[in-house]
Specification:
4-stranded mixed sheet; 2 helices; about 20% helix
C-alpha cells in the first residue's frame, strides 16, 4: 500500500468563522490550490493550514518515518472559481 502523498489529489474543506473554502493538494505536481467563492477573503495562511494537516496525517500514519518535508518546490496558488453573490452560499460551494 502506498502513502497518502502518492495519490493525485487530496481535498480539504477549510473553515473560517462564517466562511468555508476548499483546499486541494496535488501531491504528484507539488501544488497547493485554494478555491474561494469569496476571493476578497483570500489569505495565504490557508496554505499553512493545509500543510499542517498533511504533516499531522503523515506523523499519525507513519510515526517511525522522518517528518514530511514540504518546504521546497511546492507551488501555492489561489485558483479562479465561480464567486458567490451572497454571504451564505459558501457551504453549498464547498
Amino acid at each position: 500500500m502506498g502513502d497518502f502523498v502518492d495519490v493525485d489529489m487530496i481535498v480539504f474543506p477549510i473553515h473560517h468563522p462564517g466562511h468555508w473554502l476548499v483546499g486541494i493538494v496535488r501531491c504528484k505536481t507539488k501544488r497547493f490550490e485554494i478555491y474561494n467563492s469569496l476571493q476578497a477573503s483570500n489569505d495565504a495562511r490557508d496554505f499553512k493550514i493545509i500543510e499542517n494537516h498533511l504533516k499531522l496525517a503523515w506523523s499519525l500514519t507513519k510515526p517511525s518515518s522522518p517528518p514530511l518535508e514540504m518546504d521546497l518546490g511546492w507551488v501555492h496558488t489561489f485558483m479562479p472559481c465561480p464567486q458567490q453573490e451572497d454571504t451564505e452560499a459558501c457551504g453549498v460551494f464547498v
